[in-house]
Design brief:
Rossmann fold, EC 1.1.1.23, histidinol dehydrogenase activity, Histidinol_DH_CS, NAD binding, alpha/beta, globular
């Protein structure tokens, strides 16, 4: 993991390097993704089953594609009861946090007959994509599904790739049941996204697709946007730690590695005002990496996207953190709350040495589906807001419209829209 003074050229190189990881940079995959989407759009179930056989080596048909209640019951028997209990505790924390985000319809009225308001309506149907195989994350099931349930979504269809025997990872099924998924399908990849977006004989179309996936899934979500809504185009995982001389180097090293182990494109960055801490953290990283199970992935991640940057002061460190706009930002300083007030761009902010990033991944309650690749400058974490739509309410009485109707006519004519003007004028033509 390289150590460098935080200078303008270094910062520019890092920002440019991190952007290379964006799914928007992988145009070479787009043709293949578009072919899959078109095939599923035209041939529906037949194409979906064919791609499942080709990519997942599983024979799935119209009678086996949907997970049965018996399969879910079997999953509970396969999972350690203590893990089930942890899933339930985590689900409750996530539910309690997201309930506070819930929005309600509102109306304002005035004595002259004006009523203005906003009607909040949950989406009717949402598709949740869940990775399979080694990338199976029950925690992501909870994070994507529970806000939808809190919002009031009635139909939540989950798709996840099966193994070669047509089975779904038991932990994923348990999490889906605990979160409240209404239907689960054995389908993965771009073909599953196409099925959710356009519908097949077995999978009914949804209104929005959420959830993480590989580059094919990310590009497929991008391609179907417009036919349905999506949450975001997720990039590789990333963490940035802001630390001063008071930070524990073992904690910092462990937290950086918690994201580096995700995949070879993951980014782990430390910005510190302490040169001594920088070298201590580097030594701890070497010691941890030597004994961790995902050593090869960690080493490649740190080689390509790992940095330890020494800032002249905390102000410079904060400016850089805001420019990077990391998915996860940990603040390990003497006064983390004071530093937090200066942070403008971050997906999730973790304060203090006992608030490590995995706390947010699994248990605390805030959503772990976060903006990546600098998009925290304009995107927010997944929330209840992602599962609702809002309608404006407008009601005027004649008494309310009469004093202003000439203004509206004048505005419409200024835009050359005489039919707009006439729509208002006809209501007062007897008075003319």
């Amino acid at each position: 993991m390289r150590i460098a003074k935080l200078e303008k050229e270094i910062k520019e190189d890092i920002l440019k390097n991190l952007l290379k990881r964006s799914p928007n940079q992988y145009e070479t995959y787009e043709k293949a993704v578009m072919e899959i989407i078109e095939e599923v759009k035209i041939n529906r179930d037949a194409a979906l089953f064919e791609y499942t056989k080709r990519f997942d080596k599983a024979d799935i048909n119209e009678t086996t594609i949907r997970v049965t209640s018996e399969e879910i019951e079997e999953a509970y028997r396969l999972i350690d009861p203590k893990v089930v209990e942890v899933i339930r505790k985590s689900a409750e924390n996530i539910r309690a946090y997201h309930i506070k985000q819930k929005q309600y319809s509102w109306f304002d009225s005035e004595p002259n007959g004006i009523i203005l308001g906003q009607k909040v309506t949950p989406l009717a149907a949402v598709g949740v994509y869940v990775p399979g195989g080694k990338a199976a994350y029950p925690s992501s099931v909870l994070m994507n599904v529970i806000p939808a349930k809190v919002a009031g979504v009635k139909r939540i269809a989950m798709t996840t790739p099966p193994d070669s025997e047509g089975k779904i990872y038991a932990g994923t099924l348990v999490a889906a049941k605990e979160a409240g998924v209404t239907e689960i399908y054995k389908a993965g990849g771009a073909q599953a996204i196409a099925a959710l977006a356009h519908g097949t004989e077995s999978i009914q179309k949804v209104d929005k697709i959420v959830g993480p996936g590989n580059i094919y899934v990310a590009l497929a979500k991008k391609a179907v946007y417009g036919h349905v809504s999506i949450d975001s185009i997720a990039g590789p995982s990333e963490i940035l730690v802001l630390a001063d001389e008071s930070a524990n180097p073992r904690y910092v090293a462990a937290d950086l590695l918690s994201q580096a182990e995700h995949d070879e494109l993951a980014s782990a960055i430390l910005i510190t005002t302490s040169e001594a801490l920088a070298y201590q953290v580097s030594d701890e990283i070497k010691r941890f990496t030597a004994v961790l199970s995902r050593k090869e992935i960690i080493e490649k991640s740190l080689e390509n996207y790992g940095y330890i940057l020494i800032a002249s002061d905390m102000e410079e460190a904060v400016v850089t953190a805001n420019e990077i706009a990391s998915e996860h930002l940990e603040i390990l300083t003497k006064d983390p709350f004071s530093i937090m007030t200066k942070i403008q761009n971050a997906g999730a902010i973790f304060l203090g040495e006992y608030s490590s990033e995995p706390l947010g991944d699994y248990y605390a309650g805030p959503n772990h589906v976060l903006p990546t690749n600098g998009t925290a400058k304009f995107f927010s974490p997944l929330s209840v807001d992602d599962y609702i739509k809002k309608s404006s309410i407008i009601s005027y009485s004649k008494e309310a419209l009469e004093p202003v109707y000439q203004d509206i006519i004048r505005f419409a004519k200024a835009e050359g829209l005489t039919a707009h003007a006439n729509s208002i004028a006809v209501r007062f033509e007897e008075e003319e």
